[in-house]
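Following up on my earlier thread - several people asked me to post the actual chain instead of describing it. Fair enough. Here it is, all 589 residues.
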Amino acid sequence: MKRLLGYFKNYKLKSVLAPLFKMLEASFELLVPLVMAAIIDKGINNNDKPYIYKMGLLLIALGIIGLVCSITAQYFSAKVAMRIGKEMRYDLFAHIETLSYTEIDEIGASTLVTRMTSDINQVQTGINMFLRLFMRSPFIVFGATIMAFTVDSHAALVFLITLPVLILIVFGIMFISIPLYKRVQQKLDRVTLKTRENLSGVRVIRAFNQEVHEKNEFGEVTKELAKGQIFVGRINSFLNPLTYVVINLSIAFLIWKGGERVEGGFILQGSVYALVNYMSQILVELVKLANLIITETKAVACAKRINDVFDTKSSQTFKAHEDIGNDLWKIQHTETNEGDKDIAPKVEFVNAGLTYKHSKEPSVEGINLKVNKGETIGIIGGTGSGKSSFVNLIPRFYDCTEGKVLIDGIDVKDYPKEKLIDKIGVVPQKAVLFSGTIEDNIKWGKTDATREDIELALDIAQAKDFVDEKEGGIGFKLNRGAKNLSGGQKQRLTIARALVKNPEILILDDSSSALDFATDSALRMAIKEKIKDSTVFMVSQRASSIMYADKIVVLDDGKVVGLGTHDELISSCEVYKEIYNSQNREVAS
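Reply from S.P.:
Thanks for posting it. Predicted structure:
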């Protein structure tokens, strides 16, 4: 909660003015029963019409002033709530961007979406209601009690019994509700996850005729959410009936006791009306307070969930530019003998391994490999053999849990983030493009890319022909997720995005799976001819895509079981030979 309170520092004045105007409204409201009592006792009893008109105008004035105060308070509270919600959402998004893949995998994308949207909206509502009612409701409750004693202390004794009972009911239910609301939000995470999975995988679900199965699973998680909401709703539903019972019994007692006091000549009829009115005000405000507490318990539970994300720190740390001395860079590129440069390999794996968090077995282990500048490295293996995990260690999507990865002789963990990103271009397995023009998407790779840079990247990626055919060329507008492009077209644009900055290291993580063999071959040829200085890591399921690489790494169950050229591996590596033969039946026979 301390972090949440920190957001109020820029809105101190508005945060004070909102409850202040609400309390002013409440003050005028507390005067209304006294004015009505005066009208009854002095105006109606004495048949004094001018007095009734005068007091009537006073009631109208109190109502107008109260309305102005209420609107002003609402304006300030809404302003504070919306601004804090905006800042919190921005800060949470920025914080999520700092997390490594490890933390994002552990928390889960679905719950992050829920906390960015539903949870922050709930906190916004909580702040708005807090500023409007948290000061007003207790002020009215205790103010009405005090005002009742000024009317008649004997009859007002019932207030001293009623208040503790009501407070016990309200806060008792509140303490039961808080942990239950937290569980409800966790169940909402599961519904969000299931919804996200179904929307992203709708084509697969239809292709395998699994609509009924997915509907049943979705029904189960929504039923669990509904059960949780109904259970906590039933507990909270006791609030209004219990408070109404207590208040109405108190009003009945007031009328009875007040009647006795009037009959005894201690008070007038108007005073009884004022006492009942004050008790009614307490009823209304406690009902508001009860509903406010329900809202606040939800907001507190959501704030804790948001705070949990803020408290999650990235397991990765990057050094700043000033933390790396020039001497360290010079040592890696020295001339040991005149004319003979002892240059470190472009990329080197030293007993590198990766075990995902909460996983018992390593995904890759014991990787030792030296890759020189300009070499093309093919990576192949069966599904789940660790190919993507292997290349993900280079740009630090995941950090080695054992060993290390060096670029130009320097551990990737010692690079400033910007320098590491500048050196590497990555094309992930899943082609991800964003709404906007083709040019906008390509410029993600290099923000200051010229039109010539973009044209060259598209040409190498074999995307220039279909882009030129689109209306507007590189200005063609892509919709969300680039649904107006085919799978192969999306893959070629993601490759162009990585190529536009002419990276020193290019990682193609099975990024040509949707391309036909002719396009795939032309792409490999263009990369080899036009970006000769780049070191290329090419992950593929196809042996034909990597068979002409300078070196081929064969992975099986996270271990390197083969390393060499295509011809060497055909004769020495059974795993590679089996993959190649399974894809080339005619050659195998």
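Residues 49-98 form the longest helix (50 residues). That should answer part of your original question.
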